[in-house]
Amino acid sequence: MTQDPLSSIIATSEQMLEGGWELIVGLEVHVELATKTKLFSGSPNHFGDEPNTNIDPVTLGLPGALPVLNKQAVELAMRIGVALNCSIQPCIFHRKNYFYPDMPKAYQISQYDIPLNIDGFLVLPSGTRIGVERAHLEEDTGKSTHVGGATGRIHGSDYSLIDFNRAGVPLVEIVSRPDIRTSEHAKEYVAELRAILEVIGASDAKMEEGSMRVDANVSVHKPGTMFGTRCEIKNVNSIRALGRAIDYEARRQIDVLDSGGTIRQETRHWDDAEGRTHTLRVKEDADDYRYFPEPDLVPLAPSAEWVQAVRDNLPMLPAARRTALSALTGYDTQSEAVIVVVERGQHDYVQAVVDAGGDAVRALIYVQQGFADAGPVPAVPAADLAKLTVLERDAKLSATQAKTVLAELVEHGGGDAAAIAAAKGFEAMDTSAVEAMVDEAIAADPGAWAKYMAGDEKASGAIVGRVMKASQGKADGKIVTAIMQSRRG
Amino acid sequence: MATIPTTASGIAAAIASKQITAREVIDSYLAQITARETDIHAFNLVTADAARAHADAIDADIAAGRPIGPLAGVPIAIKDNLCTHGVETTCSSKILEGWKPPYDATVVSRLRDAGAIMVGKTNLDEFAMGSSTENSAFGPTRNPLDTSRVPGGSSGGSAAAVAAGFAPVSLGSDTGGSIRQPAAMCGVVGVKPTYGLVSRYGLCAYASSLDQVGPFATTVADAALITEAIAGHDAMDSTSIPQPAPALVASVSQGVAGMRIGRVTDLPAGAEPEVIARLNEAFAALEAAGATIVDITLPSLSYALTAYYLIAPAEASSNLARYDGVRYGLRVNAVDTNSMYGATRAAGFGDEVKRRIMLGTYALSAGYYDAYYGKALKVRRLIAEDFERAYAQVDVILTPTSPVVAFPFGDKVDDPMAMYLCDIYTIPTNLAGHPAMSVPFGTGAHGMPVGIQVLAPALGEAPMFRVGGALENAAGGAK
C-alpha cells in the first residue's frame, strides 16, 4: 500500500475521530476464484472435500512438476479488473519465496511489480470513490491444523495436519488505495465488493468459509501531516468484525500516540471474542521474499479482443442495478430495500413481478421482507406475487392480510393469492365497519387519543393496534390512519 | 544369434525385421553392464527385471503382429533427475533417496510409447550441479576410456553408460553444458536442444530457465533420432514451444556444401593446445566439404560464466527450497519446524548444492537483486544480441566443447572456479536458449577424446545436425 505524503481524500468533519485524528484505512482483499480447477493444475477447485483428495504432482510441488496457467482463472481475474474499472495490462508472474509447511514448493506463484489489473476504483453505494491500486492473480496455500498447544498456532503445538486441497486454488488479491476514512466505509467497501464479485460470477466471496479474506491496513494521523505508521490487521472474519477491528485499532493507536508513544509497524491479529488486536509479528521479523520472475511460466498478455469480450459480457453491476431498481420503484438508490434486494441479486425478480402486472413498490418490499433466504431466483412464480401486490394495492387485502398470504406463497413455492385469501376468509372490511372499530378504540384509550389530537403522531400506534386486534388484521392500516386523520380534522 | 547392432537405429530395424529379438538385445546390454558397471558406476539403479519384462512384451507384440513403436526394443539409460513412475528417482542426492515418483517425465513416457526400454537410472552430480559427477552423493562415475579420470558432468553417468556400451543411447539434462561436456570427455555425441523444444515436465529442476533434456548417442544420426522422439509441444510445460517435433535424422547426411560456419575470433582463452588443434582441423574438414568459414566476434561471451553463476544458483535456491522434509524424501526430526528444515537440508544436501543455494539466495536478496541477479539478466540479453548479430552472417558456429580433456579424479574438487571454467564454452548457448551439440573429433592430451561443439540459432537443429554429421564423417566415419 502506498503511503502518500499527504492524503488527497480528507475526512469530513463528522468523519474525524476524537481529538482531531484522521483514520486512514486501506484494504487487501483475497478472493478465491470460482474456477472448476486450480490455478496451475487440473485438480478440482472444490471446498469441503476429504482432505488431500484434490491433489496432483503440481499441487504437491513434486520434483519436476510444472505449472500451467488456468485460462478460466485469467478470465475471472479480468472480469474483476473490468468491474473495478482497472486497466488490464500484459503481466508476468513472480515467485515469492518463503518456507511454510503448507506451502508445497516453498514459494508462492504470485504477481509482483507487473500485475494483471491496475489503477481502478470502486464507488461505494453512499457515493465515495475508493481507489483500487491493483488486483493480481496468485495461488492459495494449503491449510494447516495445529493440534495440541494452547494457541492453535504452529508454535507450541504437538503436531500439525496439512490439507493440500486448497493449495493452488486461484486467488485474486485486490488492494485498495488508502482512501478509506471510516470503519463504516470499510464495511461498505467490502459489502459492495462482495456483491460485485457475486454478480460477475468471479467468487462466492464467503468470508466465513474463507473464500474472501480481508486484511486492513490501519493508521491515524492529523490532517495535513504525513500518514501515520500503519498496522496490518489479520483474521477479520466478517464485515461486522472488520468494523470493530478498525475502530479498536484506531482507538489503540490514538491512545498510544496521545500518551507520547510511537506506533510500531507490525501485523496484528484480531481476536473477535476479546474484541481486541494482538501483535502477530513486527516488521523487523518480516521475510525477505526474494521475488524473481517465475521461469516456469511465460508472460501473460491477454489480447485486446479477449479483454473486449470480457467487457462486453460483464453482467450489470450492483450500482447500475440499484439505479434501475430505483427508477422502477421510486425508492432511493441508497435505501435499504434497494441495497438489500440488489445485494441478494433479486432485482431481476422484482422486475419480473412488475412485468407480470405487479405493483413495483409492493414487489420490492415483499421481496425485501419475504425472500431473505430465497436467493436470486425465488421459487414463487413472479406472476403469483404480482397478483398479491395488485390485491393489496386495490385494497382487496389489508397489509397484514397480504403478509399472511405472502408467507403462504413462500412456504408452498407459489399459489393463487386470491384463492389463499378466500380460504383464510380474508376480505377487505367495508369502511363503515372500520370506522366503528376506530371509534371503539378511541373510547377505550382516551389518553392516547388526546396525545394524538395534540399532534403526537407516535400516539396513533396504540389506536391502530387496537383496531388491528379487533379486526383480526383484516382492517387496512392505511384506511385506519386516514379515518383517524379525518376525525382529528 | 545375429550380431547385435551398436546403434539405436540399427537395433530398432533388426528387431522390427525379426532378425533379433528385443530380449536378445536387452540381455546383451545387461551382460555388458554386469561385466563393467562395478568399475564404471554409471548407474544409481539398474532396472534389469523391468527391462527384460518390457523386452518380452515387445517380442510378444511382434510375434502377435501388433504394431510397435519406432524405437521398439532400443535400450536407453535415463539420467536420475528425470521422474520415472514407481522407480526411485534421486538426483544423486541423499535428500531424495528412496523417493519413487507417482508420474513419468514427459520424455520418459514418450520414449516408452516409442518402444524404448529403460535399462536404468544414471548417476549425476547432485541435482545436476557439477562438471565431473564427483558431486554425486552415491560416489563418482568413472570414465570408461580411462577409469582414473572423470567422465565429465553433470550427466556423467549417461555419457559413461553410452561410452561403456551399457546402452546405445541415453538421456541427460543440460543447464550449462551438462550433456555436451561429458559427451566430449567420454567420446560420444551429446545434444542440447533449443530451450522449449523438449518438455521439462518431470525433469527435477536445477535452473528452470536454462535446463533442457537431450540425448547421448554413439552416432550423430542416433542423437537426431532420439531428439525427434522426445521433442515436440507438451501442454504440461508452459515454456514448451507450440510446434510438433521437427524431422532431423535426414539432415545428418545432407552435407555442408554452401553452409557458412562461424569461427569466434575473440573466444575466451584457456583451452588446451590439442583442443585448439582439433578445432582448427574441424574447420579445415568442413571447408574441404564445401562450407565457408566466416570469422565472427561474440564480445559478451567472457561475461557468460559470471552471469550463469548468478542466474542458475538464484533459480536453484528457489527450485530446491521444496526439499524441506515435509512431504517426501529425507526428514531429520528436530524440536520444531524451522529446526527440522535446517537439519534435513544440512544432512540431505552436499557441499556444492549448499554453495549454490547460498549464492543464489544472496543474489536474490533485498538490496542485492539489482547488482547481481538484475545485472546477470542484462548480460544474458547482451549475449543473445551477440548471437543474433553473428547468426546474421553464419548458419552455425564451431567452438571446442570443453577447454580440457577428461581430468583425473580430485583434480578440481577443491577449486570450484577451475571446475566452473570447464563449462566456459557451453554456458553461453544455455543463456541464449539455443541448441548445441558435441561431436567427438580426435583426441587430445593423454589420448583422451576431444569434442567439437556446433552451436546453432534457436530451432536450428537441422543445420546443427548437418554440420554434426559432416564432422562425424571427417573424424573417421560413422561407427
Please, could you describe this protein's structure?
The complex is a heterodimer of chains A (489) and B (479). With 489 residues, chain A is α+β, with helices and mostly antiparallel strands. Chain A has three domains: 13-310, no CATH class; 316-420, no CATH class; 431-488, Arc Repressor Mutant, subunit A (Orthogonal Bundle), CATH 1.10.10. Chain A contains 15 helices and 14 strands. A nine-stranded mixed sheet of chain A has the order 2-5-6-9-1-10-11-12-13, covered by helices on one side. A three-stranded antiparallel sheet of chain A has the order 4-3-14, with no helix packed on it. Chain A has a two-stranded antiparallel ribbon with strand order 7-8. In chain A, α3 (239-258) links the parallel β11 (231-236) and β12. By secondary structure, chain B is α/β, with parallel strands linked by helices. Chain B has a domain at 8-252: Amidase signature (AS) domain (Amidase signature (AS) enzymes, Alpha-Beta Complex). Helix content of chain B is 38%, strand content 13%. Chain B has helices at 8-16, 22-40, 48-63, 106-113, 156-163, 180-186, 220-230, 273-288, 304-319, 337-348, 351-364, 370-391, 416-420, 427-432, 461-474, and strands at residues 43-46, 75-79, 117-122, 169-174, 189-192, 212-217, 260-264, 292-296, 396-400, 436-443, 449-455. Chain B has an eleven-stranded mixed sheet, sandwiched between helices. In chain B, α8 (273-288) links the parallel β7 (260-264) and β8 (292-296). In chain B, 61% of the residues are buried. The chains are: A alpha+beta (489), B alpha/beta (479). Chain A binds chain B through residues 57, 60-69, 95, 97, 99, 101, 104-107, 154-155, 160, 162, 288, 290-292, 295-298, and chain B through 82-83, 89, 91, 96, 99, 101-103, 105, 200-205, 207-209, 235-239, 314-315, 317-318, 321-322, 324, 326-328, 336-338, 341, 361, 364-366, 369, 373.
